[in-house]
Please model this.
Amino acid sequence: MLYLDARDAHFPALGLGTWELRGRDCARIVEQAVRLGYRHFDTAQMYGNEREVGEGIRASGIKREEVFVTTKVAPDNLAPRLLERSVKESVGALRLGEIDLLLLHWPNKGIPLAETIDALVGMKRDGFVRHIGVSNYTVALIEEASRLSGERLVCNQFEYHPYLDQSKVLAACRAHGMAAVAYSPIAKGSTRSDSVLTRIGKTYGKTGAQVSLRWLMQQGVGAIPRTSKVERLAENIAIFDFSLSDAEMKEIAGLARDGRLVDWAWSPKWD
Model:
């Protein structure tokens, strides 16, 4: 397993995303993921499954200190008092003690960022979370949040896959010592049937999706692919026994187009 290092944070580069996983199915897939070797789990207040993620981890029997859990504050909860209350609720739902990494899920133009950052920092200093960061932040927002924060922001989580050029955001993350973690890293399954990725994958006995994940890993970018199928869990983690060549990395980067898949009314103006 590869690890990401961002100043004082050290966590597995590959994790399980749990968006759209619900109820007993969510707990079951998390438990299975632990048994397959996953040690990084990503949830969010907006997903409505923090309780089930915690249940799955506990059911696996793994020691708490051996897993890294990320959750994210919903954009409607970014006012200081709402943030504090919601984070305490997240801690209670997960039932895993402190949260390893707490992110601001989306920016909210209606709430001053300085107030949100102060509250976020407060949750870390009060011992509810070990590390703090952001998600879906643009270059300008990364700059502003880093300037405002009295604690290190260790991560920016954002959409990234071969069809979306994120070089500007990546450069900003690196300039501020932040880990970059990709969601939708296999483009909602599109990479499985991509002719270029499939051709490259045949060289190594891998699928197009595995090539996409490996491409991210070799950039030093984390990834949290979501799946509800155990066979896909096993496939997604089997990416540490091969390496892409420089020429292959470049060819995959050439697939970039306007391929953004996640864009909401509240999204910021993307770079």
The mean pLDDT is 97. The chain is about 40% helix and 15% strand. Residues 1 and 240 are 7 Å apart (CA to CA).
